[in-house]
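Tokens help. Consider this.
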Amino acid sequence: MSNYSKIKDIILKLNSEELLKEKLYIVGGTVPYLISNTMSNREHSDIDIIVAANDMNVVREYLKNNNLYIKDFDSIMFDYNKNKIDYGIDCIIDGITVNFAPFEIVDNNIIQKNFLSKQSSGINALVTVTLNNVKIEDCTTTIIIDQVKIKTYNLEMVRIMKEKSNKPKDVVDIEVIDEYGYDEKKYNDLKIKTNNMKFKIFPKSKLLRLFMK
């Protein structure tokens, strides 16, 4: 049974908050439905959001102000994150996990950080993804829903990410994108650039670190 209405309400609320306005980019499985104004018939386990690294303190301020901050969900507080680098933060809103992941632009590259948890991914780890020669405006768009401005990944970027993931839910989401339509040239240009995407994973487990060297 779909929980999309709840997901959409959370996204609209976050993007309506004065502190967070124009600072959030919605990415992942909700985007095809937001852009196409289509009701999703599947369950959405979480909401994925990327945020410019220098706006992450504002996100934490908002979470603390609204009693949504949980220290154990903040990557800066992880005991194995010795350098206290920001890899993002999770919170729970109305029973839904919302992930805020920082990105920065360095030499025309997007460097995105996030973390994996044992509960959802089977491993605790800090993750850095580098997209070479990609600007944030190449892979994002802005939409208006119920008079609320929302920034998201564009459909071309979401389609590429869902092809890489290729889970059953991704196949469903790609069908929604294809039915709505997307810019094939933009998609092909982004696909070439994202083929060289670099992943760096730093697991909590010291044993796993030895295998990943």
In short: The mean pLDDT is 96. The longest helix spans residues 4-16. The first strand starts at residue 24 and ends at 27.
